[in-house]
What does this fold into?
Amino acid sequence: MTKNLVVGAGFTGAAIAVLIANKLNEEVLVIDKKNHIAGNCYDYKDENGIMIHKYGSHIFHTNSEKVWQFVRNFGKFNTYMHKVHAIIDGIETTIPFNFNTLYDVFPTTLARRLEIKLLKAFELNKKVPVLEFQKQDDEDLKFLANYIYEKVFLHYTTKQWGTSPEDVDSAVTARVPVYLSKDNRYFQDKYQGIPTEGYTKLIEKMLDNKNIEVRLNTDFKGIKGDFKRIFYTGAIDEYFNYRLGQLPYRSVRFEFETYDREFYQNNSVVNYPCNYDFTRIHEYKHYLNDKSDKTVIAKEYSENFVIGSNERCYPIPKEENTKLYNQYLELAQKENNVYFLGRLGDYKYYDMDKAILRAIELFEEVYR
Ligand code: UDP
It folds into this structure.
């Protein structure tokens, strides 16, 4: 029994597989239910030469030297700093809400007054989660807090999570804080970029190893044989046949449109917090500067995950769900040589870098 099994060929599964294959020189079988590798990071070049992120925009960003060094073993990244635009009251502006947004959406005299008050109340460059930002005594700042809550968070979050900002874990909306800065970037991480040949190619390179065998269209339930260790990046509740009940997820649906013009919008992502039923529009050619007379966009709609009809995309961080997950974790700890990891295995809203870091740290822990 020298072979290891990795369930799931996404970033997490590929990372743990290549670590075992390279550092231990052990064999690894990687299986995935889907007909492609790369999980929800899957991308492909379409007939117009545009790299499409099938499951929505993926921007790599990290402050971890370890993760940055690791991923660059498998491909190059371009120099790309992500920005997000949003349409607020018909005005195209920047998200997170920052000083530039303030001047975009309000008349200059009002914006100036609010800026002065903000700089008295907060340190420059501070990031304040919207739910905290609402705790203002000053009338002007109270007005601003309500404006941001209503125009940026309330409707977007309701569309995205099917519930109001107060009813999702505060860490979720804190991902996009009010930013007391003129920095228009979505992330401030030291390292940011998009793999120049795409995520699928990068993950393919991770899996291209003499010790790794990949089997697609393969369900864990049909796999026979004894394995030294199993690394399971699928949904933890599914592993246990939903014995304790189902862990809820949000899913997303994309409606793709092709236009006979060079660009559809000014930016890769434009959020529509208040208008329409979709949350945002992605325009993919911005990421790698793909040259084409056409452009492809995707309108993103959020919906509940339903087994068999769509994909698990976002674990829903809420107390009752964490409680159920913890019960599954107790069962997981009783399994011999089975390790759970990844967004679905850990039921955590990981960004790509955190998912990879989790794989690296688990590897170091298990093979210490
Ligand atoms: N959010 C919002 N309005 C926005 C952008 C984000 O209300 O214009 C909230 C929303 O609840 C969202 C969360 O912030 O789910 C995190 O946003 P992020 O862009 O990090 O989500 P992801 O890109 O992972 O879907």
